[in-house]
Design a protein that fits this description.
mainly beta; 11 strands; 4-stranded antiparallel beta sheet
């Protein structure tokens, strides 16, 4: 069983920054790609960013490219999402998830992920 626990969400003004963390249980963390998705009220859950198991490759949604950075520390079983220059439209619940067998294209597809965290709320005020 894999458990993912997000933290670091909160309320921030536009232009501010937050760093989300996702702590994973289980010994297979370092062998799996990880991703972040977000879901705003009344909208579908959308891809935000993903990182390969080795951290050699990262992927971003166009809407966050240049503002968000995904990283991981396999020794700590943790993946991070550094969010800078936040905008009101970034307001959403952010989820981390595990992608056990993802290709570069697959990392952007929600159904490729098998374990999900409970989410952490990010609210950006204007």
């Amino acid at each position: 069983q894999v458990q993912l626990v997000e933290s670091g969400g909160g309320l921030v003004q536009a232009g501010g920054s937050l760093r989300l963390s996702c702590a994973a249980s289980g010994r297979t963390f370092s062998r799996n790609a990880m991703g972040w998705f977000r879901q705003a009220p009344g909208k579908e859950r959308d891809f935000v960013a993903a990182i390969s198991w080795s951290a050699d490759n990262t992927y971003y949604a166009d809407s966050v490219k240049g503002r968000f950075t995904i990283s991981r520390d396999n020794a700590k079983n943790t993946v991070y999402l550094q969010m800078n220059s936040l905008k009101p439209e970034d307001t959403a619940v952010y989820y981390c998830a595990r992608c056990p067998a993802c290709s570069a294209i697959g990392m952007r597809i929600m159904r490729q992920y098998d374990y999900w965290g409970q989410g952490t709320q990010v609210t950006v005020s204007s």
